[in-house]
Amino acid sequence: xxxxxxxxxxxxxxxxxxxxxxxxxxxxxxxxxxxxxxxxxxxxxxxxxxxxxxxxxxxxxxxxxxxxxxxxxxxxxxxxxxxxxxxxxxxxxxxxxxxxxxxxxxxxxxxxxxxxxxxxxxxxxxxxxxxxxxxxxxxxxxxxxxxxxxxxxxxxxxxxxxxxxxxxxxxxxxxxxxxxxxxxxxxxxxxxxxxxxxxxxxxxxxxxxxxxxxxxxxxxxxxxxxxxxxxxxxxxxxxxxxxxxxxxxxxxxxxxxxxxxxxxxxxxxxxxxxxxxxxxxxxxxxxxxxxxxxxxxxxxxxxxxxxxxxxxxxxxxxxxxxxxxxxxxxxx
Length: 332
Fold this sequence. Notes:
Blueprint: H1 2-11, E1 13-17, E2 20-29, E3 36-41, E4 44-45, E5 48-49, E6 55-61, H2 64-68, H3 76-90, E7 93-98, H4 107-120, H5 124-130, H6 141-149, E8 154-158, H7 165-170, E9 174-178, H8 187-199, H9 206-209, H10 213-276, E10 284-287, E11 294-297, E12 310-312, H11 315-331
Parallel strand pairs: 6-7, 6-8, 8-9
Antiparallel strand pairs: 1-2, 2-3, 3-7, 4-5, 10-11, 11-12
Helix pairs in contact: 4-5
């Protein structure tokens, strides 16, 4: 427990999967043949993940083709995806990933078994027997010890394989089996499920191992029908938006053209109004006190001509002159 806790403290970090974050820590499982790692998912406690009794546990044997290359010839990849989806929904769980490629035979022997299966049209269990390999040489004792080191006494085991339940129960764990039923994605996957059910007693419903070819074909056609319906459903809003967009652009263009057409008339009316408006600038008048003429300087000359001086007699000056004349006449 101390070693596992220290490993979680040193390796705890956040993992984003399908848009959601999980706290995860890594615990090594040391074994020459059946070793691997335990990925502990759970809510952060003091910066490290933690799990409690009754959590979901998946013991998964490595399958390069199914896990990494997403092969359709086995159910390893879909089972791993389903198990992780269930752990992620609960927010806690343990994924024990063991380096047990090819049911413990290794990648090279697995490839040899697949070649033999293709050559003689037999399943991989029979091909392993032809190659004098063990049908399943995996052991889960190290995985059980790891779960005990994590402080767990009861788990919900995500598996269809009864051989994974017994080692955990022998280690003192209370095990509740949770099945992982996935639809095969090819004819080879269907035959592999059927072989695991027949040779190793995997608890797989018969409908998945027998009547799956029709289901796969039906699912493919259903996806095609959904895709054919999705195209017009998705294009309808785009078409409506296109019509509204064209209408808006047409209206805006019409307003611009109308404005350009009316601009000369509006400009002409504005200029006419300016011509008809009376001059507000008053001429500057210079008065000579010793002369009886008044010089008015205004801006009434034509462009380029000198300003004209228009002599005229101011009304006030004329009245004053006439008044002086009257007084002189009275004195005489």
